[in-house]
Specification:
The chain has 163 residues and is α+β, with helices and mostly antiparallel strands. 41% of the residues lie in helices and 12% in strands. It starts with 5 loop residues before the first helix and ends with a strand.
């Protein structure tokens, strides 16, 4: 038969006091645990003058900015489904690429619409240069009305498109 350690004998001899001591220990530990936190920042591992840290921060300053510009096209007659509006949206989309440091342009003109044709998937922009016919405008209207609002880049109900 094995002999019990001394602390275990003491806990068995005075269980109420051992339980009280355990609860007090848990309370003290809980108050100190509120001061614990995890810092998920890589900077804690490197000195401020570390060259790798500086290079990474420089790269983040160039590629990690979220500076956005939005253009809203709201025609006076409250419908965007017209030739002049399509030309304007297409032109704005092309001109937006000329803004300094542009990396991505989201527009209804370059919205990637995917559809099946026989056994192929076709991906096309909604409005390409020169596609301003009434047939194409009607096709765009049908695509907009059939696209779920969660993936659409426009507000169809208010006839506004976000560029």
């Amino acid at each position: 038969m094995q002999k019990l350690p001394g602390w275990m004998k003491w806990c068995l001899h005075s269980p109420k006091f051992a339980l009280l001591l355990f609860v007090a220990f848990c309370a003290v530990t809980a108050t100190g645990a509120s001061q614990l936190y995890f810092r998920g920042d890589y900077k804690v591992f490197f000195e401020p003058d570390n060259p790798q840290r500086k290079a990474f921060e420089d790269m983040q300053n160039i590629f990690n900015k979220s500076e956005n510009v939005s253009f809203l096209v709201v025609p006076k007659n409250q419908t965007v489904y017209q030739q002049d509006t399509f030309k304007l949206i297409r032109g704005l989309t092309e001109d937006a690429w000329q803004l300094p440091l542009s990396t991505r342009i989201e527009s209804v003109a370059n919205y990637q619409h995917t559809y099946a044709q026989d056994d192929d998937l076709v991906v096309t922009d909604l409005i390409n240069e020169g596609q301003y016919s009434s047939q194409h405008i009607q096709w765009v209207r049908e695509v907009v009305q059939s696209t779920p609002k969660s993936t659409a880049v426009w507000c169809h109900a208010r006839a506004k498109w976000r560029l």
